[in-house]
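look at this:
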Amino acid sequence: MEAALVRASTGVMKPLLSKLTKLLEHEYVKVKGLHKKIRFLRDEMSAMSATLQMLADVEQLNPEMRDWRDNLRELAYNLEDCVDAFMVHVDNERDVPSGFIKRFVRKLKKLKARHEIANQIEELKACAIEASDRHKRYLVVFDDVWDAKIWATIKLSLVNENCGSRVITTTRSIAVARCLSSQGNNVYQMKPLSFDDSRRLFFKRAFGSENISFTHLGSIPDEIIRKCDGLPLAIIAISSMLADQHAKSEWDRVLNDIGSALAKNPGAENMTTILSMSYFDIPYHQRTCLLYLSVFPEDYVIEKQCLINRWIAEGFIQEVQGRTKYEIGDGYFNDFINRCMIQPIDVKFGEAEACRVHDIILDYIKCKAVEENFITSLDSSEHAYTSEYKIRRLCVNNRNEEHVTLWASAVLSHVRSVTIFGQPLQTSLLPSTALRLLDLGDCNGMSDHHLSSMEKLVHLKYLRVCSRSITELPGKIGELHYLQTLDVRGTRIKELPPGITKLQRLAHLYVDCDITFPDGMIGRMLSLEELRTYGVQSYKQQKSLQEFSKLTKLRTLEIRWNLNIPDGLEGMIQVMVIYIYLGTLLFSCNLHNLYIMDFPGGYPLWLDLWHPPTPCSLRKLCFQRWAIHKVPSWMGCFENLGVLELMIIRVGPEDVEILGAIPSLLFLKLSTARGTNGRIIIHPSNGFRCLKYFSICIYACGTSLEFEVGSMPKVEHVNLEFAVHKMECQNGASNLGIHHLSSLGKFEVTICNNYVCHDLAEDEDDDTVRCVASVINDIETLPSYCVVNFQQPFADECEHFVRSWRECIKRTEWLMEQLAAGETEQENKEEENEQTDEKEMEQQEDYGGSN
């Protein structure tokens, strides 16, 4: 178990070594003659980092080695703080004292000598377990507590020489219950999963189906399942480790690891042993990121983008050639989901937007984080901080301001990150000169004065505030030169200060759509990689869209319109100008994710006016609540596009063909008002060879959908929303061809009858019921198991959707009439000109003949 903690100690090593290497290259160091000493620090810390990496796979450390590890960790933290302070002064071209370098050289030599002595007294570890076999340990557990060591604190108060004491308790562990009972029959046992149920759960997670097995593995799967003791979380954790692992040697290793762990510590809980195995199976460089989840309270929904940006600010993620730190962090997040260490929340287009940590796993990693002094969590019940080590990462659950304030000022001097839930601290954060991360997103009662003097936190990399009492950012926020993430969503800030352009390291900016940007600000934020949400509230702000083309690092952009577009020709001219700005934005920078939302007035978007480059870098393109006239031909050339969301006025065969030609398309969500001749037919020749998710909404018309044999061969999830009554009346067809989707695993249907909410059981002869029966019959013929979900929309949602579509269709028809009228007028003028020319020619001929 100690190795889990060693990994946290190594978390500070990589950024420290990187900074020391960078410091060696600085001209100031060479001039001041510090090069030799800094190289010594770098080399020695590198060697000790290598030792820590070897210890990372050792589950138990002797006391001497543990003490050496803790002291090395504190030394590394202090050294990094000093290096950061040194670099700030150097960057500002100020002369700084270099005495701290000599001081750390002396400390490092002393620590190295202690390590050598510790290696010579390994045999003394037997003394630590001298009394372990004298008496049997018992546990008193109250309401689902698994800790077997509690008995040691109360055994002196109980006479139990003959095992005659009796304790009533509740626990999920039969072993704990039995150790408190003189007779095993005094324990009432809740049955775990049966072997058959355990086997089904195990194989479904490991192989994707409970009916698939591999004969070359022999009895190994069954032996592993038996060792999981019917515990669902244990089964999921182990099967996640073995997912897609077909080599028999890998299965043998897992089986042996479980057996050896239980043999060494037969009194330990199986669940803890299995969680420990799952933890150590995680790649070495990801374990610190998992421990970091202990910052958050139980059942807390953790937003993915916030979590990844926090990892980056803490220095846990190192950049790799060709991938940004955020992309690497996203990979870590998904890996934790695949290993069932976190539970995905709010899944959209195959990606979880948030997560939650299972209670048992959270208890496990919290225990490790506290023992390592990796995270310090305090609340109003704790009046003082008593650890011998300095607090590095502080999480405050502040329900009682007075109590928390008592210790706050004494522990903030070396803290690197502060997360506050509840009320804000009364103590100033200024003593925390080493602060890198400040998360006040769940802190109630914040006001502008709490952010005063914020510019003095010179090392700050992450700042998040969400209080509605915050109305402005400090004017000197531009002095936070290392700030990478700024999140002010949920505040009442209406304008960003001009000084924000000085934040040349700012990569992630999260604001509400009603916040305005000063003129010329966008084009000067050259490090920006993500911006959510840029609100367009005036014609002047539209022009700022052109500035985004200067941001070559920008990867994610969310734009929301809040404009009042006038009717008639003036409105149409403004819309055309917007199209040009959007086209410039879309095809002149390296965007990966683009969200365009809420265009007012019902004007459809004419994408044919745009001219994209090839290849295009877009991976996700979402037009939400903004319709397009038709799918442009160039969209089929988007080689990297994996997610596409569109609202189309009328879906024709040519639209389906273009969309099907997108080679990497995995998720497609469409909304439409009409289809050609009342039908949308998906042919096998249409493409969609990689599509996994398909959703289409066709409420506002009687258009029917039909899948032909061989269409969408890899689609796993289909979501349909339509008005079945309209479809039956206009086309007489409710046979969707669902049985032709050979890979379908989940099918969702939202049925709207005459645009109002309808009860499926109301009338057996109703069109809706007949459609449901047809769908069920189709599903039953599928070769694989499929989950079916029938839903009814809320009436107001239907009415709002239909109203929006009717407005959009009305605008489209008006535009078409204007275009047709313009063409007719042009034709009439041309005809009049031709007639005039003919008359003039006839007159000239008549004049020539008379002469």
